[in-house]
Amino acid sequence: MNDLQMPLVLKLGISTLKLTLLPYAMAPGLTHSPERSPVTTAPATGKRTVYLLDTLHPDAVEHAKTLFNVIGPGDKELNRWREKASAIVIRSSHVTAQDIARAPNLIAIGKHGVGIDKIDQKACAKRGIKILNTPGANARDVAELVVALTMTVARSIRSITTRQMAAPVPKETCTGLTLQNKTIGVIGMGNIGRTVSEIFHGGFDAKLIAYDAFLPEDAWSHLPHTRAKSAQEVIEKADVLTLHIPLTEETRNMLSYKELKQMKPDAILINAARGGIVNEDDLTRVLSEGHLWGAGLDCHEQEPPSAEKYRKLWENLNVVSTPHIGAATNTAQRASSMAAVNNMHRYLCSLEGRQ
């Protein structure tokens, strides 16, 4: 067991949880390295074969072709990745325990983006399959969306524009919140949480209170902030609460009815992390009771979110939902795709001395 896999006890102030450390703010690579299967190569070129299960940025695909024999979307051979692949790169595909059981040669999974909840991590750990994600590649873009959602909710933009499409809206009927000097509560102090905090501090003179179970006490030494002792402390003190943690068995439903009611009555909740961290039924209930100013959600349990499932939540016009678009910019897509390709190349090259 390496240092990144040691079980930790996480005191959230809500409950005491036992976690296996997943370095969402750290360098790629989350499991033991394999010692057995050779890397698949193409006989004609001698290049390693890598299967791209999803569409990546065109620049990254062209870059990958200079490094690997690439089998990607549109190639008939892609359907046989489970039987043949030693290395795959994914963006939105799920890799289940069943997939891994059917992939005897698989030794590495490259992941476009930081989130790895679509990969069965236990099955990978059991097999020694390396997971290579791309933390930090899209941090600025996600952080900018967090700020956009916060401002949209604070100024009741959805409510105003919805009414305006039906009839002229007198400005005297409009209201909103000022964000300057507000307290921004950040749960998860990784790359995105830090960037969000830098923007709010620099642009809004915001006070910062942050919690992270893993980062050292001297993290964010360049940013004036209060380092909370628990997530509970952040929940209770924040004017804007923004989440930047992975979805795990321990963080699922981390914000349920009790925690949501402990937020300030006019607080704003932002979730641009993962659907499932916030209990959506409880959020709907809390908002219907008039608690919280509103919510900005880029992540939902159902993705993309549908009106059929979220109609009741969306009846509150101070809820703004987007279909997980935090990294949906050309800059972020290119950076994440290139990082996924380069991570895989570096890792496979590192194995050459052992094979």
Average pLDDT level = 89
| SSE order | EEEHEHEHEHEHHEHEEHEHEHEHEH
Low-confidence stretches: 1-37
What is the structural class? alpha/beta
Tally the structural domains. Answer: 2
CATH architecture descriptor of the largest domain: 3-Layer(aba) Sandwich
Q: Total strand count, please?
A: 14
Shape: elongated
Walk me through what this model shows.
The chain is of the alpha/beta class and 355 residues long. It folds into 2 domains: 49-136 and 332-351, NAD(P)-binding Rossmann-like Domain (Rossmann fold), CATH 3.40.50.720; 138-321, Rossmann fold, CATH 3.40.50. Helices cover 32% and strands 15% of the residues. The chain contains 12 helices and 14 strands. It has helices at 58-67, 81-84, 97-101, 121-127, 139-154, 157-164, 191-204, 231-237, 257-261, 280-288, 307-314, 330-351; strands at 7-11, 16-20, 49-52, 69-71, 87-90, 108-111, 130-132, 183-187, 207-211, 226-227, 240-243, 268-271, 294-297, 319-321. The strands form 3 sheets. The chain has a 7-stranded parallel sheet with strand order 10-9-8-11-12-13-14, with helices on both faces. Strands 4-3-5-6-7 form a 5-stranded parallel sheet, sandwiched between helices. Strands 1-2 form a two-stranded antiparallel ribbon. α1 links the parallel β3 and β4 (69-71). The longest helix is centred in the last third of the chain and has 22 residues, at 330-351. It is elongated. The two termini are 22 Å apart. 44% of the residues are buried.
